[in-house]
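Checklist before submission:
- one chain only
- standard amino acids only
- sequence pasted in full

Submission:
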Amino acid sequence: MFKKVLIANRGEIALRVIRACREMGLQSVAVYSTADADALHVKFADQAVCIGPPPSRQSYLNVPMIISAAEVTGADAIHPGYGFLSENADFAEVCRKCGLTWIGPPPDAMRLMGDKIRARAAMTAAGVPTLPGSSGLHDEVQVLEAAERIGFPVILKATAGGGGRGMKIVWEKAKLIDAWSTGRTEAQAAFGNPEMYMERYCEKPRHIEIQVVADKHGHYMHLGERECSIQRRHQKVLEESPSAVLDQPTRDKLTQASVRAIESIGYTNVGTMEYLLDTDGQFYFMEMNTRLQVEHPVTELVTGIDLVREQIRIAAGEPLSFTEPRPARGHAIELRVNAEDPVTFAPWPGKITALHMPGGLGVRVDTHVYAGYVVPSNYDSLLAKVIIHDVDRPAALRRARRCVDEMVIEGIRTNIPFLRRIINNPDFIRGVFDTGFVARLLAERASAA
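Returned file contents:
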């Protein structure tokens, strides 16, 4: 086991990793930009190093400065958290070449699953269901031929990235080329690579993901599913585990396919297999996230497994702490609390003048904010994750409503009113929803205004 871990991130995830290190008897090193000089991860780490000004490219994406911070402090491992450099295989390679342990999957596996076309091919070879699709599309002839073969509606996606950037849904041939051209421009701007590919568009799907974990001793395991269908513009708003819609045979097929997939590519450490579940109960591989997910706490609460501790153990060469599947115990829901206008969803940085977070049995709050904290305008608007656990979904929803009513964040605007609207919605309560749920909810509000 190594002795000192540098966390190449900020915010609540940096705190999350610092806490795991402290509980494992490891020292931690925080890095921070000048905008985060007063942040809690800076305060609670054993050491902290300023790595640049507020812009991410000059600080949290500044690889030479991060490596220098590790060398100066004597860190022997780097945990990337999520976002920023967490899925950057080149950064993982640099860490290894500099004698630093990378707390994450092998760079080759990251590159494979980060290339959406190669990932689709690998999953098909492993027997994981995929939607009809194409290879890279480089000219209008290829685009038109692919659409003719696949059939409308289709969805165009960026080969090099995700998160909805560059993604275009096309319902008819007349709009196909314009959508492809626009998507290429967006993909180039977001990922530095304009290449697009095409899949058949799955209408009204659920977004289901499977938590996978593997060590260096040949143990490949899953930790069940998360329901991630409540999202706005392809960004998740609320997650839960287990899914209210999966029957056991489908769950078994999903988890078995996911374990088979990571074994086929020699994957180690923690990762997430993401799927679309159609209205007929058929599932299709969408992508793999080769890192820790924002929503990992819901899995931790229903399985009792500390995923960050597991990441660190695996990177240090230790075997998994468990050898049998962990069936879900009760139900967990995560609410993402963001600094944003609850109507327009515009980011809302500023000073938090008063703060009260919910507590009590079955309530976990992962946050980096405090009364007097100034939310910077330079980074993601996530303020806190409120994770609720109870014996079943109805009980967890009641607890979630109580938690939302207890939350007080003054001085800035937040999405708390919108979260309240979701968890009180009759369709959501019944579990009758898909990835278009939030868009429909917003359209209903607009038509009623």
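Reviewer check: The domain at 132-200 is CATH 3.30.1490.20 (Dna Ligase; domain 1).
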